[in-house]
Amino acid sequence: MTYQLKDLVNLERYPINDLDGAGAPLLRSCRNSLSDDAMCHLIDFVKPEALSAIQAETDTLRDRTYWMEVERRAYSWRNPADYPDGHPVTVTTPNFIGSITKDCFPNKGAFVSIFEQPALTEFVRRCLNLESLYPVACPFLSANVKVMSEGCQHAWHFDQNDGAVTLMIQPAATGGHLEYVPHMRDENDENYSEVGRLLSGEELSVRRAGLKEGSFCLFKGRRSIHRVSEVTRGSPDRLLAVFSYHHLPGHRYKDSTVCSVLGRLPDTYPNPS
């Protein structure tokens, strides 16, 4: 079937196709949540039938998961050699996660269709107060599903950009919680002392997002440290869709970026350099 917006999104509750009319209060609420809490969490965003279709598509592709297990630093873009031993920039925590890439999914299926909805892109753009926004054109990472089975965890980290966009396809049986500290650092204060305490195991003021299946989430992770706690029991595993956007059309990721996410370039990768 060919999916339309009304087949995918609960428009009665979330009228993202009418942001200057019925959807204006929703837009204001999302902007306020992002400003105050660094997160906007919309439960039951996806229609049950569409969610079931996305779950079924993902289940058939589990054997095509790229697994990546590394020790990750919270500041992945900074050179640890520039800092003394024990500095928060040098500290690593375990990171074990899988990815199912967009090219694996059917082009007209529910997963790809919801990512490619222009109304969803416009909703994200306006929530984030951006002048322009386009779906990333990378055939692999523009939209992908993060798989977390028993023993998987996503290390504490800051994002390099604000505006992570995710859809919870299926939470884990036990564990696998998104945990974060909003506004941990800012442009004038890196707050290394508090970051260091958190990385050493102190709880501090960690929040836990209660993401349920069908939840759509916008998150400002550039200044808000976050992780996904260990999945202590799978079956079902944690399945999270990640949608990527850029301010310019046609943006594709560098080879090094694809490798850092998947552990290697896909066999179908065009002309790797």
Offer a few descriptive terms.
single chain; 273 residues; alpha+beta; Jelly Rolls; four-stranded antiparallel sheet; 7 helices; 15 strands; 23% helix
Strand segment count: 15
Strand content: 15-25%
What name does the CATH topology carry? Jelly Rolls
CATH-level-2 architecture: Sandwich
Distance between the termini: 38 Å
Helix content: 10-25%
| Average pLDDT metric | 96
CATH class wording: Mainly Beta
Shape descriptor reads globular
**CATH superfamily descriptor:** q2cbj1_9rhob like domain
User: Which class of secondary structure composition applies to the elements?
Assistant: alpha+beta
Oligomer: single chain
Tally of helical segments:
7
* Computed CA radius of gyration, to the nearest angstrom: 18 Å
Q: Give the helices and strands as they follow along the chain.
A: HHEHEEHHEEEEEEHEEEEEEH
Low-confidence stretches: none
- Give the strand order of the largest sheet, numbering strands 1, 2, ... along the chain: 1-11-7-14-5-3-2
Count of distinct structural domains: 1
Major sheet size, sense and barrel closure:
7 strands, antiparallel
Task: Describe what this molecule looks like in 3D.
With 273 residues, the protein is an alpha+beta fold. The chain has a single domain, classed as Jelly Rolls, CATH 2.60.120.620. Helices cover 23% and strands 25% of the residues. It contains 7 helices and 15 strands. The strands form 4 sheets. A 7-stranded antiparallel beta sheet has the order 1-11-7-14-5-3-2. Strands 6-12-9-10 form a 4-stranded antiparallel beta sheet, with no helix packed on it. Strands 4-15 form a two-stranded antiparallel ribbon. The longest helix is centred in the N-terminal third of the chain and has 14 residues. The radius of gyration is 18 Å and the shape is globular. It starts with a helix and ends in an 11-residue tail after the last helix. The relative contact order is 0.20. The model has no long low-confidence stretch (mean pLDDT 96).
